[in-house]
Amino acid sequence: MKDNRITAGTFHPEQDQEEYTLRPRRLEEFLGQDRLKENLGVFIQAARERQESLDHVFFSGPPGLGKTTLAGIIANELGVQFRATSAPALERPGDLAAILTTVGDKNVFFIDEIHRLKPIIEEMLYNAMEDFEIDVVMGQGPGARTIKIPLLPFTMVGATTKTGLVSGPLYSRFGITARLDFYTNEDIESIIHRSAGILKIQLEEEACRMIAFRSRGTPRVANRLLRRMRDFAQVWGDGLITGEIVVRGMSALAIDSLGLDKLDRDILKTVIENYGGGPVGSETLAISIGEAVDTLEDVYEPYLIQKGLIQRTPRGRTATRLAYEHLDVEQRGSEDQKILF
Ligand SMILES: Nc1ncnc2c1ncn2[C@@H]1O[C@H](COP(=O)(O)OP(=O)(O)O)[C@@H](O)[C@H]1O
Ligand SMILES: [Mg+2]
Question: Quick one: pLDDT band at residue 12, thresholds 50, 70, 90?
Answer without folding.
Answer: low
